[in-house]
Amino acid sequence: MTRTALEIVSLSKSFGKTEVLCDISLKVAASELVCLIGPSGSGKSTLLRCCNRLEEPSSGDILIGGRNIHHGTARDLRRMRVRTGMVFQGFHLYPHLSVMGNLTLAQRKALGRSRSEAEAKARLMLEKVGLSEKAAAYPSELSGGQQQRVAIARALALDPDIMLFDEPTSALDPELVGSVLAVMADLKAQGMTMLVVTHEMGFAREAADRVVFMDAGVIVEEGTPDAVFGAPKMKRTQDFLQRID
Ligand code: ADP
Ligand code: MG
What we know:
By secondary structure, this protein is of the alpha/beta class. About 40% of the residues lie in helices and about 25% in strands.
């Protein structure tokens, strides 16, 4: 049986009186790529943010590698954060640090790696995202697509168990989207576990093992890309897919 990398159990989240996630349950198997799609405001980002405790759920549980991330000490929390690599729409690189500086900082602070160890790891990860020659560059000298690939390399350098992507290509000029999606497809091919919020339906269709459609804080439908895109069962899914075509 395949190992479960991430398990979300009956997760609910309210902001004040507004319930934005309502009894969400979802499992992601090791090496699986799950794409989360749905209209703006449906709760996709909040769900992802709960997975590394950038948001506190109102109720429910989240397990990573079988361990509940909502129990334990502050030290456990720091360790757990490192195990989920998060990549956002905006790249969140430190502008005053070089690419190498961006890639080594968290390795040294969160994992206590030595400078040489962190730099060696950073070089490996830069190679993975096709940016070996940019180690000395500053973020402002890079295209948006290159910055996002640096952000991916930075997350990978921490050896996460799962990568969480929140619309990683939405801020990019159309001609730069492909390079980032290609890196993500590569990661998938290498066996990385990934939960990806995306509007790139082509990517979801081609690369995902499973597609989950969310609307108004609930999972409406999930299945293989062929099932969800080719023969959606629910009216809300059909309407959404029609709108974005
Ligand atoms: P999506 O990523 O699918 O667009 P979000 O998870 O960002 O959706 O938002 C879901 C709902 O939660 C929206 O109605 C949004 O306005 C609300 N929301 C998100 N974050 C907060 C917050 N910090 N405080 C209050 N409401 C929030
Ligand atoms: Mg969002």
